[in-house]
Specification:
Layout (H helix, E strand, L loop, with lengths): L2 H16 L32 E5 L11 H6 L1 E13 L3 E7 L5 E3 L16 E4 L7 E2 L5 E6 L2 E13 L9 E3 L2 E6 L2
Antiparallel strand pairs: 1-2, 2-8, 3-7, 3-10, 4-9, 5-6, 5-8
Length: 181
Amino acid sequence: MSRGRRDGLVLCLLLSLGVPAHGVAQTCTAPGANGTCTVATSTTLTIGRVVELTLSSVSTTLTAPAVADYDAGFVADAGPTATVRSNGPWRLQISGTAATWTAANTEPGVSARTTKPVGDLTWSTAGGGPFAALSLTPVDASVAGATAGNVVNLFYRTVYSWGLDTPGAYSLTVVFTIVAP
């Protein structure tokens, strides 16, 4: 393409961008000094999905087990409170990020249990249960419709065994996911 022709195309393109497109307009004329004229217009709006998840805390300190807790096999603790706001249906899901808890030694000569499974943290939306073992696969903790503030209380029970759970510092990442189907 010659330089002159290319420059002409660029100029035509620039001019066409600056020229308003001819559209269909409505007009009316009001005859006389006190005439009235009405023109109807249309307005459109697209509302997208709006979902908000707020947790009361981003960390939960679990109660260290005592003799009675080892005998019972668990310790109960309150977990975080999740508040969901959504303009449509939603599902609050819970899952873990690793198959085992991280474990750090805290006493000389005693190894912390590096194989404590994610399922040793159980959860429920009711203080008295039923409780489900946490897993790596997200599961629904709560399902509801549009809301200006649905509160979901979570409760934990950490499972303990005399023969397995040795002294140490343990941690586990719990993930809360809001899904808007």
